[in-house]
Amino acid sequence: MNSAGDPNSNFNVTWEFDISVGFQHLVRFHFCDIVSKALNQLYFNVYLDSSAVVNDLDLSTLSFNVLGAPYYLDLVTSISTSNKMRVSVGPYTANGAYPNAILNGLEIMKLNNSVAA
């Protein structure tokens, strides 16, 4: 998210993906804070289909107080009833942080729901 230098920006960056109806999906978010100049500057929220899955995410606290360290988050969805999945990141500004968010990579894997014989 690049808020173009506007500290009053308040929007999410959203992607929409086609998925298979009737399946659960493993969603793996990849993060790496490659934009901050110091620790504890980048706070943001992560959403999956309009539901907040992580609020106030601070990568520097999850990566042992190191900038530029990779971190991933795995989530398994409910069985899908829609053929679309929306993933969003957006600013968390309740702590006075500059509005920003980052998502470096995303994997969406359909989980097999068959029973082995």
UniProtKB/TrEMBL annotation:
Top-level lineage group: Eukaryota
Protein name listed in UniProt: Uncharacterized protein
Species of the source: Melastoma candidum
